[in-house]
Structure formats: structure tokens, C-alpha cells
Structure to design on (308 residues):
């Protein structure tokens, strides 16, 4: 849950999740509809599907007990080098390195590393440095040294060594920081500029019949796979649609702006009528039924607006 998501956002989801699915066996056996509903609003839904696959793998291959070996953890669906390192160091105090955005910022500034962290050579240098630090920590007598070191670097980057306005004057490693000594704090990490965001416009069609609404489930393998949504198309005007009819001059009753990777998306929802051919491409459900489904965040806002 914490991948790409802040702790303050995760807490309520985490507590609700544990009430519904308190252990690995419960997660492994849960229906995808239930896991998606519990995850609704967190985004990056591939995470929850991978998490369930990982739970099923743990039940099948490790007797339902989470593996402690780094290589075995790394083999779990959705777990990469950073996540495996974080789990093994923080949970099991093993000397496994971590490298996320916060740690990258701390290391490049403290050690004055000028290369782009996204480039292969610099990234490998940072991984090696992180590995040396946690290995050195493992040689100390403190029984949680590896765990504390990695957590400390993450917290230092999150709270003190921030991207903008870092609090260098209270940083516990300020005397060791090359960037501070050489007045290069603002220049590090040296991240190349990302490509400019692309603007896209979608129109959602809210079709009602006898108190029920036409909705559809997104296909597997794509963005927001398995989640529910109102029919929608990427258009410039709702009049362009060949499947749905919107009254001339109609205004959207709901507008949602959101981002997915490098896209900045504007979604406008209109009440509409559907051509007979497209009605078979979805299902008709009452509001109470819709509330039980996991919708994409943008379309959940449309549903909320309908209830007002």
C-alpha cells in the first residue's frame, strides 16, 4: 500500500483491510471483487492483484508463512529489489539495501554524487553505496541496526532532506554532507527533466433506465483492469460519439481532473441515451448495486455526484 502512496493516506485503508482480511490465508482465498473494493481509491491496482497472487504463492509454496530469505521474497509477484530489501531489512533485520526516491536524495547529497540517478551507472553506484552502508550496520552490536539504518534514511529524505526547502540546519548528518559543504543541495539529485505532460479529454456517458445505470468492467491487462466505470470515450465533444446521444447544448453535470503517469486527463460526465447496439456491452445496475463495486477513482466521483 505504501508504494507510491503516503502513510497518511494508507492508514485508513490498512485498518479496514486487516478487519476484512486479517491474514495471508484470507487474502489468498478472497474474491478479486472484494480485494478491489477494499483497495478502491488507492490507485495502481496492479499492486492489489500482485499482492493476492503473492499470498496464494506463499500459501502454496511456503506453508502460509511469509518467507525470510531475500531470494524467495524477490520471487513473489509484484516484489522488486527495493521492496524485497525493505521487507528483509526492516522486518528481519537483514543487511539488504534499499533505494527509493528519499534514499536517493539523501545519498546523492551526502556523498555529492552528480550523475543522474536514473542512468544505469549512477543507479548501480547508489545501490552499491546503500549495500555497503547496511552491511556495515550489520557488523555493529545493535540488534536492529539494519532495520534502523534503512528506516532512518527513508525518514531523513521524507522529513528533512526534502526536494524543496530541505532543513539542513537540523539535519543529523549535515557535517558529513558534501552538497551542503559545496553549496549544491538544490542541484542534487541531478534528475533529468521528465517529458511534458500530455493533455487528454474523455467524455463519460451516464445512461439511466428504470432506475438503473449502464456500467461496464474494464478488461484484464490494461489500465485499471477489472474496475468498473461508466461508458466513456476519448472525444473533443460529446456530439462526436456514434454510440451515445447527448442533448444539444447540454453541460456536463460532473467534471473530474486527474493524472495517470504522464497524462493529465479531463473527464466530463453527461447524461445520455445509448444506441441499442452498445447496451449489450455493459450491465444495468441499481445504485445500491453500484455501491458494492470497485470503480476507478474518477468514475467513483461521478457516482458520488449522482447521489447528491
Amino acid at each position: 500500500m505504501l508504494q507510491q502512496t503516503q502513510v497518511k493516506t494508507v492508514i485508513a485503508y490498512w485498518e479496514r483491510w486487516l478487519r476484512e482480511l486479517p491474514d495471508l490465508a484470507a487474502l489468498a482465498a478472497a474474491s478479486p471483487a472484494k480485494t478491489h473494493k477494499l483497495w478502491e481509491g488507492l490507485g495502481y491496482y496492479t499492486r492489489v492483484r500482485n499482492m493476492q497472487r503473492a499470498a496464494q504463492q506463499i500459501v502454496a509454496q511456503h506453508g502460509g508463512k511469509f518467507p525470510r530469505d531475500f531470494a524467495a521474497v524477490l520471487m513473489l509477484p509484484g516484489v522488486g529489489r527495493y521492496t524485497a530489501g525493505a521487507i528483509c531489512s526492516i522486518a528481519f533485520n537483514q543487511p539488504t539495501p534499499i533505494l527509493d526516491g528519499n534514499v536517493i536524495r539523501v545519498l546523492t547529497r551526502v556523498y555529492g554524487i552528480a550523475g543522474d540517478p536514473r542512468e544505469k551507472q549512477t543507479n548501480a553506484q547508489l545501490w552499491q553505496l546503500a549495500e555497503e552502508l547496511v552491511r556495515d550496520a550489520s557488523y555493529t552490536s545493535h540488534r536492529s541496526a539494519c532495520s534502523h539504518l534503512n528506516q532512518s534514511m527513508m525518514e531523513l529524505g521524507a522529513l528533512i532532506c526534502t526536494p524543496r526547502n530541505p532543513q539542513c540546519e537540523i539535519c543529523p548528518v549535515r557535517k558529513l554532507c558534501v552538497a551542503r559543504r559545496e553549496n549544491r543541495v538544490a542541484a542534487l539529485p541531478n534528475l533529468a527533466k521528465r517529458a511534458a505532460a500530455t493533455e487528454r479529454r474523455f467524455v463519460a456517458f451516464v445512461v439511466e433506465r428504470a432506475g438503473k445505470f449502464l456500467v461496464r468492467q474494464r478488461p484484464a491487462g490494461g489500465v485499471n483492469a477489472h474496475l468498473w466505470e461508466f461508458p466513456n470515450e476519448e472525444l473533443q465533444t460529446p456530439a462526436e460519439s456514434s454510440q451515445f446521444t447527448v442533448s444539444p447544448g447540454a453541460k456536463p453535470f460532473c467534471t473530474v481532473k486527474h493524472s495517470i503517469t504522464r497524462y493529465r486527463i479531463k473527464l466530463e460526465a453527461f447524461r445520455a441515451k445509448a444506441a441499442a447496439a452498445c447496451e449489450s456491452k455493459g450491465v444495468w445496475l441499481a445504485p445500491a448495486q453500484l455501491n458494492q463495486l470497485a470503480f476507478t477513482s474518477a468514475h467513483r466521483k461521478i457516482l458520488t455526484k449522482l447521489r447528491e
